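Reply to dn_fold:

You asked what the input looked like. This is it:
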Amino acid sequence: MLERAPLPAQERNTTGLDLLDASFLIGREGPSIELTLNRRPETTFGHMLATRRSVRPDEPCSLSDIIDLLWYLHLPTTSWIADDGYRERQMPAPSAGGRHPLSLLVVATSLTDSPPGVWAISPADKPVLVPVEIPAETIGKILAAAATALRASEPPPVLLVAVARSARTLSKYPWGKSLIWRDAGALLNTAHLVAHDLDLDSCLVGISETVCIPLPNTDEQLYDVGALAVGGRTTNATAED
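and this is what came back:
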């Protein structure tokens, strides 16, 4: 019989797991950007569900649009210190056991109000978008995989890449690799709904474990578990589903 109970708190190793992933990756010069809401949708949730469509984005959007999207995904949260010392959280997208092993990388190839760049979310009390230093070869692999998955000649204007730090979940649920994939589905689908409500085109992108990003001073790696392509709304786009 498969054991499904969490590992007892006293047996978990959570050393360093509460450190922010973005703090490992910061290195490129550039200002951090506080996540603030620039415009608020007026549609109801029911209307959003009834009109939602997946559309492969071709047109660029603004960095301001992306900040609005991320603001909703990182609304003020409830957090608590678990018995094992890890800070568990309640956030807009649910996560098994409140462990939230996923972080979002923003990989922008085309923006209307800013140069292309790569950013990560530093989920402090007031979340900020920070420029990060990731090898160009790594970003190139992610963008190429996304273009292939979308059957497109070019990568999307913006790619929100969910990267997993699996030890956050596995330290509590050693059998819980599938929980990380469920978390990825919850996070990316939530992002897709928010993008639709903000009048942005978006489409889930089936990439996974394309790259591994080493975390300095640890024996861990971040790896991709899916992505959302995002761009400006087009009037003649063809829905995917």
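Residues 177-197 form the longest helix (21 residues).
Hope that clears it up.
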